[in-house]
């Protein structure tokens, strides 16, 4: 039996907090609508207490999103929780996500507190959040560096206080996959009421291990994965949604789990987030990088021509990637341009091929490869010139 993994997207919260300038409200809504189309289960829309803009964005997204649950972040502080609840007021399905640090280093150096006080604060916060919704997530910040005894203690108390999701955060991306798996397995062994909650994981990528750690956690019983589009997030980023969901899909038989994502929306969503966040995608990035499905060596090309499965473990079509095996350069003819534009959803009547081709050649001479977004711009500019 395959069990479902809940996909919790935090592009608009953890992702946004890593940008030089926060996304504007219109762009946040555009991303939320794309995430809904991608069928993510939960959209963490923001941290309402952090700024009026974040509050407004969570409010707007709560109004507009119908098919994904909308979540807002709050520290384990009464004001944060009340403001998060207010921002989420009109959401059809909502979650309050409250968190506090549990590691010794954070408790002593950052919070100047004691573990006992942290436990009390967490319990009070969860109980308060439950007054606004039955769906409360509690996160142990820096769980990856928290002693196992303390982690088990606070998780049991959080479940007892009413948290239905417990999130184990590897906030600084420190753990190794076998260690992180061991943390999750130990919770299942040692926390008496663990089965009353969904165990979630939230991994950062400081050592490039966030996806591996998330998959290891799933193998140990975690059933929610927190991630962001293109892996954007604090410092080196978060677990990349497209990577973790495609790893689950490609290895579903072995992992015995699945997600309900609309995989064909992955490419579009990735490009949208990259453009709106002004965060280019490295060419060799897994799944959504420019080179992820291009084959260069003669031996590989020979294999691909005989049977694509020789060097492709997932198909580009499965993530909604149009056939990019034809590079558009100054050597390309009109037929190739026309075919690519049609595959982008344009009708022949939407542009003038002769004018566009002339501009295309000038651009291709200057920059070499011409991409879909260049074609979009050329269509726009040649049409505007025609209308002048
Ligand atoms: O990395 C982290 O610990 C977080 C928490 C708010 C879950 O982002
Ligand atoms: Zn985080």
From TrEMBL:
Keyword Phosphoprotein set for record: no
Signal peptide: none
Binding-site positions, Mn(2+): 14, 202, 204, 238
One MF annotation (Gene Ontology) recorded for this entry: acetyl-CoA C-acetyltransferase activity
Residue stretches making up the Pyruvate carboxyltransferase domain: 5-267
Enzyme class: transferase
GO biological process, one term: L-leucine biosynthetic process
Pathway, per record: Amino-acid biosynthesis; L-leucine biosynthesis; L-leucine from 3-methyl-2-oxobutanoate: step 1/4
Cofactor: Mn(2+)
Catalytic activity: 3-methyl-2-oxobutanoate + acetyl-CoA + H2O = (2S)-2-isopropylmalate + CoA + H(+)
UniProt keyword terms in alphabetical order: Amino-acid biosynthesis, Branched-chain amino acid biosynthesis, Cytoplasm, Leucine biosynthesis, Manganese, Metal-binding, Transferase
EC number(s) from the headed UniProt entry: 2.3.3.13
GO cellular component: cytosol
Function: Catalyzes the condensation of the acetyl group of acetyl-CoA with 3-methyl-2-oxobutanoate (2-ketoisovalerate) to form 3-carboxy-3-hydroxy-4-methylpentanoate (2-isopropylmalate).
Protein family according to the UniProt entry: Belongs to the alpha-IPM synthase/homocitrate synthase family. LeuA type 1 subfamily.
Subunit structure: Homodimer.
Name of the protein in question: 2-isopropylmalate synthase
Record organism: Paraphotobacterium marinum
Entire-sequence positions represented here: 1 to 388 of 512
């Amino acid at each position: 039996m395959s069990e479902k993994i809940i996909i919790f997207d935090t592009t608009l919260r953890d992702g946004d907090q890593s940008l030089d300038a926060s996304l504007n409200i219109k762009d946040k809504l555009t991303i939320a609508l794309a995430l809904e189309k991608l069928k993510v289960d939960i959209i963490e829309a923001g941290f309402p207490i952090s700024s009026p803009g974040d509050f407004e964005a969570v409010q707007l997204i709560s109004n507009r999103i119908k098919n994904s649950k909308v979540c807002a972040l709050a520290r384990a502080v009464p004001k944060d929780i009340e403001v998060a609840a207010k921002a989420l007021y009109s959401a059809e399905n909502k979650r309050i996500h409250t968190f506090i640090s549990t590691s010794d280093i954070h408790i002593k150096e950052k919070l100047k507190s004691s573990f006992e006080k942290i436990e009390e604060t967490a319990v009070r916060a969860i109980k308060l959040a439950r007054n606004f919704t039955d769906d409360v997530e509690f996160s142990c910040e820096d769980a990856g560096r928290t002693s196992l005894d303390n982690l088990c203690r606070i998780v049991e108390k959080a479940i007892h206080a009413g948290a239905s999701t417990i999130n184990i955060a590897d906030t600084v991306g420190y753990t190794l996959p076998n260690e992180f798996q061991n943390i999750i397995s130990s919770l299942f062994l040692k926390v008496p009421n663990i089965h009353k909650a969904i165990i979630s994981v939230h991994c950062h990528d400081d050592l490039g291990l966030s996806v591996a750690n998330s998959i290891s956690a799933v193998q140990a019983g975690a059933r929610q994965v927190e991630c962001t589009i293109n892996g954007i997030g604090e410092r080196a980023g978060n677990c990349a949604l497209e990577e973790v969901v495609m790893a689950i899909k490609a290895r579903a038989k072995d992992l015995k789990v699945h997600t309900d994502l609309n995989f064909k929306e992955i490419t579009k969503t990735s490009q949208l987030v990259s453009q709106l966040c002004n965060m280019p995608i490295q060419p060799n990035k897994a799944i959504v990088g420019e080179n992820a499905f291009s084959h260069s060596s003669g031996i590989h090309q020979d294999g691909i021509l005989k049977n694509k499965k020789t060097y492709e473990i997932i198909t580009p079509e499965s993530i909604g990637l149009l056939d990019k095996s034809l590079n558009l350069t100054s050597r390309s003819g009109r037929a190739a341009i026309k075919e690519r534009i049609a595959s982008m959803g344009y009708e022949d009547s939407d542009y003038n091929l002769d004018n566009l081709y002339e501009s295309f050649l000038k651009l291709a001479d200057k920059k070499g490869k011409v991409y879909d977004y260049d074609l979009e711009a050329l269509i726009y500019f040649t049409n505007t010139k025609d209308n002048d």
